[in-house]
Design a protein that fits this description.
Length: 147
């Protein structure tokens, strides 16, 4: 009976140590690399478990470090999506400004065409353009009395 208890204890210690080695981060093991510790555990079960607990196990408590998952696709990356939204807004703003500039240029061309070559208010030369009334001549809007 004592023999069976001894075998069970050795087996439990071996399995616990092997699972501990497997779950330990490969950068946190001390002494030798993680695959080498697994080989030592399998070849020398009792001695390997003892050596693992003394020399191989990381210092302190095994802390649960946050797993940093990096985006695998661009649409999973919040930084990419933020930049994409900024680019889309900037492009929409540029298109709006181009449209406004084109409208302004069209209005200026239309105004130049309506003034004619002498700037007298049209191709016939009749009337006055805004702000072009000469001194001594009647105002086309008859607002001389109001001045």
């Amino acid at each position: 009976m004592l023999r069976v208890v001894g075998v069970v204890v050795v087996l439990v210690v071996f399995v616990y140590a092997l699972v501990d080695v497997i779950r330990t981060d490969r950068h946190a093991t001390r002494g030798i690399s993680k695959p080498a510790w697994i080989v030592v555990m399998i070849v020398l079960p009792v001695l390997g478990a003892i050596l693992w607990f003394i020399f191989g196990r990381p210092y302190g408590k095994p802390s649960a470090q946050p797993v940093r998952r990096y985006p695998t696709a661009p649409d999973d990356d919040p930084e990419f999506l933020r930049n994409l939204e900024l680019r889309r807004r900037n492009q929409a703003e540029e298109e709006r400004l181009k449209k406004l500039k084109a409208e302004l240029d069209a209005k200026e061309r239309k105004l130049k065409d309506s003034k004619g070559p002498e700037g007298t208010g049209g191709p016939e030369g009749k009337g006055f353009a805004t702000g072009e009334a000469k001194h001594g001549e009647p105002d086309p809007h008859d607002t001389d009395e109001l001045k």
